[in-house]
Specification:
mainly beta, Immunoglobulin-like, seven-stranded antiparallel beta sheet, six-stranded antiparallel beta sheet, 1 helix, 48% strand
């Protein structure tokens, strides 16, 4: 992630016989929310700008009290908390899985360019189960950028809850990242269009930068190629793929849009036209061979 940095004056006191020591705390219970799973805006900072939420961290509330009890980071590092150590630091993180019988993978990673290194905690905890808080501690972290994430795990495939992050830094100054200018973010590019195995769903693969330095969100729309009228929004946009399930045969094209709050949308070029034939419903008393003959699917592109 390309970003600029700026220093923030925190005016720490100088303890006797040692470097200046400052404590930064993020506490989920100090947040408010209008509803459960309300998204924290990308780039929102806490603890005097020291801790930042990226990628769409959500707030979780107690259904009885309607108060925020925790936050939730996304699976596969899709959303996370980040902080930058400029001296050295001791860190404590309270975390859990997302449900009583769920298990989540969690990690603190040090980021340097494209390289990521997992930092071991003193408790040797990699997985958390249930919603009881687990406390992870890290001592003597050196200078660098750190993220608390739920790493990719194809078996578990879920995020994790974060209740509290405490960083005690000695020396240095707090650093927060400035977001990449929207003008430097490229518009989405549509890479490939394909059908699902059953021929009912259209998958549109695209490339776009998201997260703190990119788009806050991405949407995709299907249009009628003959009238240019909007037919439908994608039913799902996730991990660079937009999914559409048309209800009728037709010739369509697609446009993917990247969005950032208070900025003009960035749209992809129109895709090639797709001639889609809706599969026939399966009659109840015909053989598989007859069905295959009748339910021919066609996928072709025209300029």
């Amino acid at each position: 992630m390309l970003s600029l940095q700026k220093k923030v004056n925190v005016d720490p006191e100088e303890p006797e016989g040692g470097a200046a020591e400052t404590t930064y705390v993020f506490d989920a219970t100090t947040l408010t929310a209008a509803k459960d799973k309300e998204v924290i805006e990308v780039g929102t900072t806490f603890a005097n700008g020291y801790i930042t939420a990226y990628g769409g961290v959500t707030k979780r509330i107690n259904s009885s009290t309607q108060k925020v009890t925790s936050t939730e980071i996304g699976k596969s590092e899709s959303s996370y908390f980040e902080f930058i150590v400029t001296g050295n630091a001791n860190v404590t993180i309270e975390t859990s899985s997302t449900g009583g019988s769920n298990t989540s993978k969690v990690a603190l990673v040090r980021v340097s360019g494209d390289a990521k290194t997992t930092v071991s905690n003193n408790e040797n905890i990699e997985f958390v189960t249930g919603t009881s808080k687990a406390t992870l501690t890290y001592y003597g972290l050196g200078e660098g950028t750190y993220r608390f994430v739920s790493p990719e795990d194809t078996t578990l495939n879920r995020g994790a809850r974060v209740y509290k992050i405490t960083v005690v830094q000695k020396g240095g100054e707090a650093v927060v990242q400035e977001r990449k200018a929207w003008g430097e973010v490229a518009a989405p590019v549509i890479d490939k269009i394909s059908l699902s195995e059953d021929g009912k769903t259209i998958n549109v693969k695209f490339t776009v930068e998201t997260g703190y330095d990119g788009a806050d969100s991405v949407t995709a729309v299907m249009y009628d190629a003959k009238t240019d009228e909007k037919v439908m929004n994608a039913s799902k946009v996730d991990n660079g793929t937009a999914t559409f399930t048309p209800s009728a045969s037709g010739e369509y094209y697609f446009v993917v849009a990247a969005h950032r709050i208070d900025e003009e949308d960035k749209n992809s070029d129109k895709s090639e036209n797709l001639k889609f034939v809706l599969p026939l419903a399966a009659p109840g008393n015909q053989s598989c061979n007859k069905l295959k003959a009748q339910e021919r699917l066609f996928l072709s592109f025209t300029p």
